[in-house]
Recover the amino acids of this structure.
């Protein structure tokens, strides 16, 4: 039977998707789409279901009701290696260090194309080389992962995901626990991968400012439901921020980007 042509207008299409863990409903009637080459940020308060949604998209978590299509095909119809050629995933940093050199670890990203008995080919070596160059980690190739800083390791994890050669890159809090310098470096390399390599990016982040400044569109979850989905600047509307996070947030105009950004509020001092 001939398979229908993939919908090239949507690399990911989610409709009326709900997901439970035990009796707890984590996601409720979630609907959104991701277009080719787009950068979509997912934001929301703690416990909103952001990481769960990302894991459902990569089938780390299975089940749920509703629809998830990847390139026009139901997610459940993909074999695992086939899905890995379409979607790669970078989890939250958890401090674990693997006993590999950087080059060996990035080469592991080529697993969708290798079998236990096949040699590493020229295409695999080239993909690893390009990923190391793009992420600025080529100089670390012979070093053990454990000798790198947290920010350097995070870039290597992204390099491994890029070496996988997938069309879509899913990232769960890629800049968590990083200092300002490494946050900026990771943000820059993601923007470069998106712009230069055409990789579609879906990234969960707690940094709403970064989401508004870097992404094309923002999806905001609250209590497992979609509270906002639209152009990145739209998340900074005061009524949208309050709807998503449940409190009013102070914003000022960004001096270069021309959109509002969130700034900390000074707590009121108790009267003496």
């Amino acid at each position: 039977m001939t398979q229908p042509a993939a919908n090239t207008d949507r690399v990911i299409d989610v409709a009326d998707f709900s997901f439970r863990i035990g009796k707890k409903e984590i996601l409720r009637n979630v609907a959104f789409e991701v277009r080719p080459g787009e950068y979509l940020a997912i934001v929301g308060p703690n416990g909103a279901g952001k990481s769960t949604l990302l894991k459902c998209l990569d089938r780390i978590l299975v089940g749920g009701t509703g629809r998830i299509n990847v390139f026009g095909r139901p997610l459940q119809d993909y074999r695992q290696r086939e899905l890995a050629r379409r979607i790669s995933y970078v989890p939250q940093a958890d401090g674990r260090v693997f006993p590999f050199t950087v080059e060996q670890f990035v080469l592991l990203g080529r697993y969708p194309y290798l079998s236990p008995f096949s040699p590493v080919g020229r295409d695999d070596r080239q993909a690893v080389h390009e990923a190391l160059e793009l992420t600025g980690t080529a100089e670390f190739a012979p070093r053990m992962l454990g000798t790198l800083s947290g920010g350097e390791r995070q870039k290597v994890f992204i390099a491994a995901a890029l070496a996988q050669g997938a069309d879509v890159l899913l990232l769960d809090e890629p800049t968590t626990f990083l200092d300002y310098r490494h946050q900026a470096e990771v943000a820059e390399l993601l923007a470069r991968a998106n712009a230069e390599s055409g990789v579609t990016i879906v990234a969960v982040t707690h940094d709403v400012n970064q989401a508004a400044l870097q992404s094309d569109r923002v999806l905001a979850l609250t209590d497992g439901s979609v509270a906002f989905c639209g152009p990145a600047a739209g998340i900074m509307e005061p009524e949208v921020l309050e709807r998503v996070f449940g409190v009013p947030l102070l914003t000022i105009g960004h001096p270069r980007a021309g959109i509002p950004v969130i700034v900390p509020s000074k707590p009121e001092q108790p009267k003496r």
Summary: Residues 1-6 have pLDDT under 50 and may be disordered. The chain has two domains: 1-86+166-181+190-247, 96-165. The longest strand covers residues 24-34.
